[in-house]
Amino acid sequence: MIRSSWSLSGRQSAGKTGTFSTDILTQASIFLQSTRLKLYSAVLDRFQVPSYSPMSVNQAFLLATHNGGLALNRTDLGVIDIGAKTNILIWNGRSPALLGWADPVAAVILHTSVGDIEGVLVDGGWVKKAGKLVIPGYEKVQDRFLVAAKKIQDKLRALPTPLQNGNFLTGYPYGDVLRVDALRGEGDGYGVQYVN
Fold it and tell me: What are the CA-CA distances from residue 132 to residues 82, 115, 135, 154 (Å)?
C-alpha cells in the first residue's frame, strides 16, 4: 500500500551522474531495463520465451542504495541505521506516477522521476521540502551556471563538427549505425543537432 508520502533510503551512494542520466534513480531503471533486454535476448535468440524476469526491481534498488555504498567500501551509505550517513528521499505518493502501485520499490524504480520527489534530507537538513529546493542562494548559483553554460556552448558552436570516420581515440574504428526513421514519406525526423 502506498501512503500519501513514503520514503526509502537515499541514492547518493553510487554517485550522482552517469552516462545516460543525471540521477541514480533513472540510472537504476535504465540499468534494470538494459540488463533485462540483454538477458531476454539470449533466450529469444534460441526461439524460446523467457520463463522469469532475470533481474528484479529490488535488485536494481539495492544497486542504487546499499550495494552502491558497498562498491565504494562504505557500509554507512545507502542504509537507514544508527550511525549511517543516510540521506533520505521522500516521494509524493499521490503523484500520477505512484498512484495505485502496491509495491513502492517497483513504483520508484520503474515509474518515477526526480520530479516525483517531495522532500530530500541531506546530513539531517532539508534541501528540498514540499517539492521546492530550499538551498540558500540557489538562484545565484543558477544564474552563474547559465552564464558559464552559454559561454561554453558559444565556444563549442564556433568549432567545426568533428568527423566520425577513421578510428576513435582508443584506436577502434567508427562503425555505421542504422538511423531510426520516425516519419512517413520523405525525411526521417532526425532534425538539427544543437549544442545545448
Answer: 28, 10, 9, 31
The answer to whether the beta carbons of residues 13 and 69 sit under 8 Å apart is yes
H or E element, residue 126: strand 125-129
166: which 3 cell numbers?
A: 577513421
Q: Quick one: 64 exposed, middle or buried, by C-beta within 10 A (0-12, 13-18, 19+)?
A: buried
Interior angle at CA 37, CA 31 and CA 40, nearest 5? 135
Query: Mind listing the pLDDT tens digit for each residue in 166-182?
Result: 898 899 999 888 888 89
pLDDT in tens, 46-59: 999 999 999 999 99
Judged on CB neighbours under 10 Å (0-12, 13-18, 19+), 15 is middle
- Residues 63, 30 contacting (CB under 8 angstroms): no
Question: Mapped to the 3 state alphabet, what secondary structure does 80-100 carry?
Answer: CCCCCCCCEEEEECCCCCCCC
Chain mean position to CA 18: 7
Residue 195: pLDDT band (50, 70, 90) is low
3-state SS, residue 6? strand
* Average pLDDT for 186-195: 80
- Distance of alpha carbon 58 from alpha carbon 73, whole angstroms: 21
